[in-house]
Amino acid sequence: GTVPPKLQISTDYKVEQMIRAGTHKRIPYSKDIWLMLMFFKPKLRSEIAEFDGPNWKSGDVLEALRPLVDYRASNAAQYYHPWLIEWSPNNKLNIASIPPNTTHWADHDSKDAYHAMLIQEAGKRMGCAKYMDSQGQTVYLEPQCCQQGQASSAAWFSPWVRYGYNCFIGPHHTVWWMDFSDDSCAHGCGETQCLIRYSIVGIIKVLMGMKPQLKRSPSCSVEKHWAGLVWTVKGICISETARLAIIEACSVIPRG
């Protein structure tokens, strides 16, 4: 859990931000917790500190970071019910559910969508992480909600969010928009219908505790890059970037 010196202050700020948001809390070391390494990926943009800290001031320009945890050990130790597979993201089912008169697409993104799902105490103990702060002290963090990277979060999010859809509008969501894990894409016959459905899925997610991605505005178009594919009126295919990557991979002669 060590951090490059140039990112140390930004890392300390990010951890304090997570604690203030209620997604994590500091805990003392205990032999009954599962510890994974936490590391931080730069977002290649800056952010302004919103509060004072031990080694930064409000208004300081810091590096925007994405906290990541290596959950492989914890994920491998957990059991998932076989019936969860039928709720897993499946683009083949998404494609089959699109009405033939669809003309427009609008993708919806929530900020840290998994944080809206609660987690049991046993789950919290299996998802702890550690990193070393600027004082050289090892900090132990316990998640207070579901997190990105946890297999349990991905497995349970799909049935959880669909349960919410059904509570509000019944089965209509199956023909109004598609879901792929925590991403959604509304579709419709015409721009107006598509944007109405986009608004409905956004409102439902807010009522379920998710926060919309404010850096993105509604984008409704006849072609949409979503869930690794290009969705158009004429059909669905892989992107040009993916096509070139496949060609490059196929041109490599295997060794051995």
Oligomer: single chain
Computed structural class = alpha+beta
> What order do the strands of the largest sheet run in, or round the barrel if closed?
1-7-6-2-3
CA distance, first residue to last residue: 37 Å
- Parts with pLDDT < 50 across at least 5 consecutive residues: none
Helix content percent band:
25-40%
SSE order, one letter for each helix or strand: HEEEHHEEHEEHHEEHEEEEEH
Report the sheet with the most strands, covering strand number, pairing sense and barrel closure. 5 strands, mixed
Radius of gyration, taken over Cα atoms and rounded to an integer in Å: 21 Å
Average pLDDT for all residues:
89
Q: What count of helical segments does DSSP give?
A: 8
The geometry reads as globular
Q: What share of the residues does DSSP label as strand, in percent?
A: 25-35%
Number of strands: 14
